[in-house]
Amino acid sequence: MIKGKIFDVAVDIRKGSSTYGKWVSAILSEDNKKMLWIPPGFAHGFCVLEDAEFLYKATKEYAPELERGVIWNDPTINISWPIDKPIISERDKNLPHFKDIKIKESI
Q: pTM higher than 0.70 for the full model?
């Protein structure tokens, strides 16, 4: 984290995994200097809590045509987001529910 604070979330989307559909989160900030490693087969989302700048590494080159997502407030996953009225992009408002996404078998 270069600046600010975020609520960072990873969701296991590996079919057949014992933690399929479960999520973990961490507060990442310039003060606590924490990081969250998100392995292949997990979805990633975040909520900005303070004006933030951050960097992340990826295992492969970014390919926008492969980008997918899950609606932020999906009732199946039921993430406890730390804010009541988030600002959501039009793209993210229209993402599918967890039960409707196409997922590869467990990695």
A: yes
Q: Which overall architecture, per CATH, does domain 3-100 show?
A: Sandwich (2.60)
Q: Cα(first)–Cα(last) distance of the chain, in Å? A: 29
Sketch the domain layout of the chain as residue ranges. Answer: 3-100
For 58-80, the pLDDT digits (tens) are 888 989 898 889 999 999 999 99
Dihedral angle computed from the Cα positions of residues 37, 87, 31 and 55, in that order, rounded to the nearest 10 degrees: 50
Contacting residues for 80 by C-beta, under 8 A, at least 6 apart: 25
CA gap 100, 95 in Å, rounded: 10
Q: How many CB atoms lie within 10 A of CB 14?
A: 18
The residue type at 84: D
